[in-house]
Amino acid sequence: EDGAIHESASGSPDMRPAASTDGKADLKSLVVAEGGARLGLLTKDGLAAALKELGLSAIGSAEEATDYTRKMVLAKKVHIFRHLSQEQTTKLVKSFVLQRYRKGAHVIKQGDMGSSFFVIASGEVTVMINGKTIRTLAKNAYFGERALLFDEPR
Q1: How does residue 124 score in pLDDT terms, banded at 50, 70 and 90?
Q2: Of 129, 124, 127, nearest to 111 (Cα)?
């Protein structure tokens, strides 16, 4: 019954909310009003097909399409990329590799030569110099650009 569409007493569709344990709304709690609604629906497979039709043929599966879309959204939120053309942004996004790090993991170490540029998609990263916390970077922040541009240690 969760998320099923039911007829209300007035004969219009009504999506019954699912029980929520944390009090937060989720997609199961959408309700169509008395007048009804028209909704556009894009599935993962549909997204993959649309991206392929747009010339992004390297994206084949729905999973790859979702991954590409996440990367594109991230790139659009990073201010140093805002002046790139659509073609340049697409090429940049295709080169992104998503990596996950656990709490406490060292992403880079001071003094090491750098060969990567990082954009934070979610979570936070603490910047430490000589063991002292300097700042905390959050979603859409970036680091590592100097190592790439100037071939210098971190």
Answers
A1: very high
A2: 129
To the question of pTM greater than 0.70 for the whole model, the response is no
59: Cβ contacts below 8 Å, ≥ 6 apart: 48, 51, 52, 65, 68
Q: Say which residue, 124 or 12, is predicted with more confidence.
A: 124
**Kindly report the CA angle at 72 between 67 and 74, in degrees rounded to 5?**
95
In this structure, the number of other CB atoms found within 10 A of the CB of residue 114 comes to 20
Q: What number of helices (H) and strands (E) belong to the chain? A: 4, 6
Arithmetic mean of pLDDT over the chain: 75
φ and ψ at residue 120, rounded to 5 degrees? -85, 115
Q: Are 113 and 153 spatial neighbours (Cβ–Cβ below 8 Å)?
A: yes
Residues 6+ apart with CB under 8 A from 52: 59, 60
